[in-house]
Amino acid sequence: xxxxxxxxxxxxxxxxxxxxxxxxxxxxxxxxxxxxxxxxxxxxxxxxxxxxxxxxxxxxxxxxxxxxxxxxxxxxxxxxxxxxxxxxxxxxxxxxxxxxxxxxxxxxxxxxxxxxxxxxxxxxxxxxxxxxxxxxxxxxxxxxxxxxxxxxxxxxxxxxxxxxxxxxxxxxxxxxxxxxxxxxxxxxxxxxxxxxxxxxxxxxxxxxxxxxxxxxxxxxxxxxxxxxxxxxxxxxxxxxxxxxxxx
Length: 247
Known about the structure:
Layout: H1 2-22, H2 24-27, H3 31-50, H4 60-83, H5 89-102, H6 121-136, H7 151-163, H8 183-199, H9 204-228, H10 238-244
């Protein structure tokens, strides 16, 4: 199986080598020109996932095809970088290999240390965020969240990461969350709020983006204030955390 995978990837890389040399369209592509294609293929993978029935396997052929299209985009970008003398596909693969080993200390023991013990998935995520912050030399747990994310996806990222510091958004207004028992209920409420916002002349995407930005700034301000006191909020209790919230 390993040899088959290696041969298949090499075959795809070889195909792109030929296309870059002999196809005028492929030869002229750059990272920037490929950007819309990468975005389109990503959304097509997501659509295939939405249509996939994991129990029966229905839709698996479409998913395989769309993953292939997305893989081609990765290989293509690596080839563009290779042609510019920057990095190649092997560098990309080695980079993600090293990163995943480092960020799974509960599976792969850090050099000279024992395997880290974790109680469950939540602690795995917390360790991942902590290691990533150290790797990137970031000042905030919110650093690195793409600005291009849709507002709702960005909000989910901000909420999840800020939860590692013990912060969470305010509870919904009284009565707003009553009767919400399923994810479908939440979806209907969100849809209704979008419609209500339009009636008021408000764009839900812009409104949420602004609110998330304000919340994120409060998180960053709390981190900065705590850091000035040589304190990591991830290690603090709720009383201490609230001291720095909107300080």
